[in-house]
User: Fold this.
Amino acid sequence: MPPTPPTKRPSRSTIKRSSPQVDPPGAGITWAKDTELVGLVFELEAAQSSTLYAQYTIGLHAWFLDQVRQNNAKLSAALHDEQTEKAFTISGLEGALIPKSGGFQLTAGDRYRWTITALSKPVVQWLARWLKALPLTVDLRDAPLQIKQVAIAQSPTTYAHLWESAATYSNSVTLSFLSPTSFRRQGHHFPLPVPYNVYHSYLRRWNVFSDLPFDPDEVLEWIDESVIVLRHRVESTKVQAGKRGTVTGFTGAVEFGLATKARADEEWVQLFYALSNLAPYCGTGHKTTFGLGQTRLNWDIAETPTLSTRENLVAERIAELTDLFIAQRKRIGGDRATTVAEKMATILARRELGESLQAIAADLEMPYGTVKTYVKLARRALKGDEE
Assistant:
């Protein structure tokens, strides 16, 4: 038999090489369909050396809501405008942020952690879809951060599970407040972890998002009489959060216990532990969608970050200017005078520290011309006070 002819190999030019398919970070993360609460932590890497502006949490908030808007306009509208309690929280960047004129210095390759939590089934379901098509970069005004990894930060669960598991608890509760935490009380900031205020903030979210609401008056009366502070280590600081003004908040840790007579009310005791377990998901106090009130179930002062000199500087200057402008406008009175004073103070303080009016306008979602007018009014008011 004649020998079999050798198989002819295709030329290199005819071979089609396909790039390996790379799944987005977090594509493999899943949870049960009935999940109502979950926390995710993103590992972000500075794509280039750049300056991150001081009020970057406004940018994180806007970027996240824009991601929702691109995929689910109805949910975006609900998160942005409709809900009395927001169904998500975000943290600031956890890592070594080096203060620099105009913000913070980011060095290419440096890594940071960023946490997002969801408090309702619609947001949890959206997160599950989003992770399968996650963008590779968080865009923060000339400081892009590449998403390297995503992991579960707070276990997927339901409100019913929080309630059922709370029936077995009996010890004290320790909470660490990792970012400035504050409450609104009689129109002012209240920077103390008083049980009534702490658990009121959890109960509000519980009643909005769970299927097991409780009468707030009855619960809070019991909290006020029954929950005691066993120990605490907190300190207060001023910080800018949101789009105008400053917040006086506290960081640190506190341990809560129950008075002996309180344990006779088994339902309220169970609710106390259920609300405590809700804390890492919903955060504590107000402006939790701008990085405030990040809370963990432990006592760990060492992990509580301190604010940078830069953040303190901006916040203190805004507070100083706000008091000045309110005093000048006291003859007008009312909420409008306070709102205008806070806007003037916020814009002028940020301008004094090197931010452009265009950048400030974009962050505050205000027309450039309006921001320009406010800074002129602020400078004129400041000059009048000096004279």
The two ends are 113 Å apart (CA to CA). The chain has a mean pLDDT of 85. The CA atoms of residues 105 and 193 lie 33 Å apart. The first helix runs from residue 56 to 71.
